[in-house]
From TrEMBL:
The keyword Transferase applies. GO terms for biological process: carbohydrate metabolic process; propionate metabolic process, methylcitrate cycle; tricarboxylic acid cycle. The keyword Transferase applies. Pathway: Carbohydrate metabolism; tricarboxylic acid cycle; isocitrate from oxaloacetate: step 1/2. Belongs to the citrate synthase family. GO terms for cellular component: mitochondrial matrix. It comes from Paramecium pentaurelia. The lineage of its organism: Eukaryota, Sar, Alveolata, Ciliophora, Intramacronucleata. Keywords: Transferase, Tricarboxylic acid cycle. NCBIfam families: cit_synth_II. This is Citrate synthase. GO terms for molecular function: 2-methylcitrate synthase activity; citrate synthase activity.
Length: 380
């Protein structure tokens, strides 16, 4: 039987079946377990979406209340993990901290029996933010934060711990919460596929998550929102934005935050996060210049290159206006996508088969072996 040859990056190859999300069906659209992303972003909390992705259906009020209590109970940072976090240098990238947290928790609280997947998922979703911020505050100022802020949402807990405030602007909390929903799941994205490959070997759940975090770290995947903010932040006027774009055009460099492997036109998540970023720009602590520059770049990219922004582009300005430092952008992605990864790893294990594709060989033809004493540049 002939084998179908894959395009570069496995583009267009169906690598398996999944009931978790539809991405770009017909070139557009995003649904989690059948629910449109617009409905979920505007009408649900991240905790509801967490339940949906891990359990397969939206929760009742009682189920949601129970989940929120469970998240609160699972926030505590183990003492041994705190000791390790206190030794890590402040120059560490937050993604390295996230990978380390997953690995250490996998040692301290190992997967020892079937059926622990949901428990591990909630533990990591609850713990990732507090652990990251414990390291951040201790390494920068020596402060040992109290990670538990009560039965706050994942979004509110993160923002209170980062800003060390007891009250956060509701719009900032909502924006952060919506971003978590938008980043939660995206079918066989690189990190999800890598994680599924790992657990397909019958490796443990934590190994699948550390695989995913390492894959997400790259700027062509999760790191794109950081890369977008890095070029947006110095641009303080439309003329500077034009200079930046013209220079990138001339050098034929990628403009991070634009284009998508699946969506042929607009990423359906982009207008949602743009809406919240625009709302933030009109507040006292907002940055209207950043939004004006972003919108100008978007306009030119669509008109001149026919390339649309993806979720990462306006997420950069949204997170910036929430007061979150740029190096933490991708780490927040981890907290969110932990829900999608968890759903996929549960699904992979439910009908597992080792993932082992083949490559198209492009090396030399079969050669005659040459003993070492007869080898030289002429006959090799």
């Amino acid at each position: 039987m002939s084998e179908k040859k894959a395009a570069g990056g496995l583009q267009g190859i169906v690598a398996g079946q999944s009931a978790i999300s539809t991405v770009g069906v017909g070139g557009i659209g995003l649904n989690y377990r059948g629910y449109d992303i617009n409905d979920l972003a505007y009408k649900c909390s991240f905790e509801e979406v967490t339940y949906l992705l891990l359990k397969g259906n939206l929760p009742t009020q009682q189920q949601l209340d129970e989940l929120k209590t469970y998240i609160w109970q699972k926030r505590q940072i183990p003492c041994k993990l705190k000791q390790i976090l206190e030794t890590l240098p402040k120059e560490s990238h937050p993604m390295d901290i996230m990978r380390t947290v997953a690995s250490i928790v996998g040692i301290l609280e190992p997967e020892t029996k079937p059926g622990q997947e949901y428990e591990i998922c909630i533990r990591l979703i609850s713990l990732f933010g507090p652990a990251l911020l414990y390291w951040y505050h201790y390494s920068n100022s020596g402060i040992k934060i109290n990670e538990n802020t009560g039965k706050d949402s994942i979004a509110e807990n993160f923002l209170k711990l980062y800003h060390l405030k007891s009250e956060i602007d509701p719009l900032v909390i909502k924006t952060f919460d919506v971003s978590l929903i938008l980043y939660a799941e995206h079918d066989f994205a690189a990190s999800t596929f890598a994680a599924r490959v790992t657990v397909s070997t019958l490796s443990d759940f934590y190994s699948g998550i550390t695989t995913a975090i390492g894959t997400l770290r790259g700027p062509l995947h999760g790191g794109a929102n950081e890369a977008a903010m890095q070029y947006l932040e110095p641009l303080k006027s439309i003329s500077q934005a034009d200079q930046f774009l013209n220079s990138r055009y001339q050098s034929k460099q990628l403009i991070m935050g634009f284009g998508h492997r699946v969506y042929k036109k607009e990423d359906p998540r982009s207008p949602i996060i743009k809406d919240f970023s625009l709302q933030l720009s009109k507040t006292t602590n907002g940055d209207p210049t950043l939004l004006a520059v972003s919108q100008h770049i978007e306009k030119r990219m669509i008109e001149e290159k026919k390339i649309y922004p993806n979720l990462d582009f306006y997420s950069a300005s949204a997170y910036k206006q929430c007061g979150v430092p740029t190096p933490m952008f991708t780490a927040i992605f981890v907290i969110s996508r932990m829900t999608g990864w968890g759903g996929h790893l549960i699904e992979q294990r439910s009908n597992n088969k080792l993932m082992r594709p083949v490559s198209e060989y492009t090396g030399p033809a079969k050669k005659q072996f040459v003993p070492i004493e007869m080898r030289n540049k002429a006959n090799l």
